[in-house]
Amino acid sequence: MPKGTAYFLAMRYLFFILLVLSAVDAQAQISKAEFSQVISLIRQEFSALSVANNRKLKFFTSYESDWAQAFARRWEDDEIHVYGGFAKIRGATQDSFALIVCHELGHLHGGYPYSNVDLSLSVEGKSDYWATNVCLPKMIPQLKARRATETSLSICSDEICARTLDAALVVTHHFARDERGEKPNLLRKDPTVVTEILKTHPSAQCRLDTLVAGFFNEAYPACWMVEIK
């Protein structure tokens, strides 16, 4: 192998390692027991939605993995795959991890608009919206008690609201670091106005806007959803 090629491959590998390390902290923020508890509680709370459609809700998890990734798919059954990197992102809590799982569940049960009509899989924006509109408010009271931040408490009138916004900030700040973008802010809105429904991941700020709108049952943000006339 030419020396130049070997050097390029070594540098690319080093960059990849640094990218992974920047995305997650070396030490897990939530324990394996807390990770498993979130999965168990969400399964108990929402598996009936799959059963109603003659399917089972199955979870495939790897707490030991440092990969901050999760995805949902629908084959014969409803599947959610979650990796342990989301237990290690900066500021991770049971609330933020539950939000990740709720988002994936939102792909399966969020409804229109769909990224895959045949499989009835919701687009990213709708999955975010469903996560805080339906799922996370039901889960937070069942999770480990924690004090919400002053920022969220200044916006909210109750603990569930504040903890939801805190979880949304943890998750979207991670996405912003991952995409090398500006840190999302509760006092700012994504100014983007789409002309067709966005089926891919919106910006981190747009995702925060959507998570907040979902909790308060507000209109879908225009940064991913077109106005329905």
Write structural notes for this entry.
This protein has 229 residues and is mostly helical. The chain has one domain (3-215). It is built from seven helices and five strands, in the order ααβββαββαααα. It has helices at residues 3-23, 32-51, 94-109, 124-139, 150-155, 159-178, 204-215, and strands spanning 57-62, 70-74, 78-83, 114-116, 121-122. The strands form two sheets. Strands 1-3-2 form a three-stranded mixed β-sheet. The chain has a two-stranded antiparallel ribbon with strand order 4-5. Strand 2 and strand 3 form a beta hairpin. The N and C termini lie far apart (61 Å).
How would you summarize the topology of this molecule?
Blueprint: H1 3-23, H2 32-51, E1 57-62, E2 70-74, E3 78-83, H3 94-109, E4 114-116, E5 121-122, H4 124-139, H5 150-155, H6 159-178, H7 204-215
Parallel strand pairs: 1-3
Antiparallel strand pairs: 2-3, 4-5
Comma- or semicolon-separated keywords:
single chain; 7 helices; globular; three-stranded mixed beta sheet
- Name the structural class: mainly alpha
- Cα-atom radius of gyration: 18 Å
**How far is the first residue's CA from the last residue's CA?**
61 Å
List low-confidence stretches: 5-26
Strand order of the largest sheet: 1-3-2
The number of helical runs is 7
The count of domains is 1
Can I get a quick summary?
This protein is mainly alpha-helical and 229 residues long. It has helices at residues 3-23, 32-51, 94-109, 124-139, 150-155, 159-178, 204-215, and strands at residues 57-62, 70-74, 78-83, 114-116, 121-122. A hairpin with a 4-residue loop joins strand 4 and strand 5.
